[in-house]
Amino acid sequence: MVAKMPNLNNKLSITIFFPFLNDWATVGSLILSAIATLKPLTDDYEVLIIDDGSNEQAKDMLKLTEKQLPNVRIITHEKNRGYGGALKSGFSAASKDYIFYTDCDAQYDVRELKLLIEKLGPNVDVVQGYKIKRNDPWYRVIIGKTYHFLVSKAFGLKIRDVDCDFRLIKRTVFDKVKLYENSGVICIELMKKIESSGFKIVEVPVHHFYRTSGKSQFFNIRRLLSVGKNLVKLWWKLIIKKQPG
Questions:
Q1: What is the CATH number of domain 14-240?
Q2: Maximum Cα interatomic distance, the chain, rounded to a whole number of Å
Q3: What are the domain boundaries of the chain?
Q4: Rounded to an integer, what distance in angstroms lies between the CA atom of residue 202 and that of residue 29?
């Protein structure tokens, strides 16, 4: 079934990007699914892979993919910049009117992008996914719910699921919203600044799947302590000092 085109003044123009770090087992299917999803809707699209310091084997695979698929472009970080650094590169490199991104571990179905596109309209700036059900081990579910509760209270976030990296954003949002974080707390920075700037957000339920390959970079003690430290710094900047976007 083909998704209905949103009521836009012009043809849909969209960049899809995936932050990538040695996700060789899933990236190929994600790219092909992204292209298959967009082709019935528009021919004005591009797919970016933000290679955040992957190993040489992964880099070689990406170069081959770029040669074979003309709408695919690789943005390479010679050294790892962190999740936030990868997202900032993706937002900066995007050339189309709308930007969609999701993670490269295939825990979301990129074909559900059409559900987000259906919600676009002249007054909609962001279409944000939220997980229908989190399919992770029980301890990750608990940590995820606790994380969302704490950051929502601390930062005054109104969205249902700030931890759902399945987002479609109008590119002009970034004329006002400036991002600085290089770690995973960039998602808090992004959505807090979007909400504070008064942009219109529509939320859509999406499916979340069990990780079949790769390894989470978030759920370990050292990383959790680092995230906690970064969150406190970000809270101080955005809530106490009230730094602008």
A1: 3.90.550.10
A2: 50
A3: 14-240
A4: 28
